[in-house]
Amino acid sequence: MDIAERALAVHNRLLEYFGYPDWRRPLPPLDELVSTILSQNTNDINRDRGFQALRERFPTWGQVRDADPQEVIEAIRTAGLANQKGPRIQKILKQITEIRGGLDLSFLREYPAREAADWLSQFKGVGPKTAAIVLQFSLGLPAFPVDTHIYRVTGRIGLRPEVMNAEKSHIHMEVLLPPETYYAAHLNILRLGRNICQARKPRCSECPLQDLCDFYANNPDL
User: Which residues are designated catalytic?
Assistant: First the structure.
């Protein structure tokens, strides 16, 4: 089978193994954007703690935008790298206000997916993964986010060239799979990477993709 057929086979196998994923309730797009920035270089628990503390301290995004920078930094301290993320979030909020006259990103739902991703990517600190997460999980636009788990798993299986970097992998996966599969494929590959295809000690004996995986074919004793 070719690589596109294998990608679809991986998706279907993971649907059989994990079922259709039920993700959390979608956030408004600006909330999703800030939450995803907070998630950079940390785990979900610390991201959520930082996001909750920020919203409790500043109930509106306008208040975050106009706040004393040190207060924002202190509010998101648990998310890590607060000295970088705080000023970055405030700068993005100010830039959005300058461009749009307000802090509502719902207009992006009317954009084609690539144009929406490009619009978000104009801001420093918003890369392909962050933009794709906002598109897929908040705006309802087709996008395939590639985080460290998905990058590792797709490389091991053989769904992307080993030398391909993470940034190019977003577009690669979007070409490889039909748009209607992005949501479930992303979440199920992510789950596989977290629970089975782990970075240091992959649990290949438990993996439902053994017959589809290049890594297992080369390491059958794992």
Answer: 129
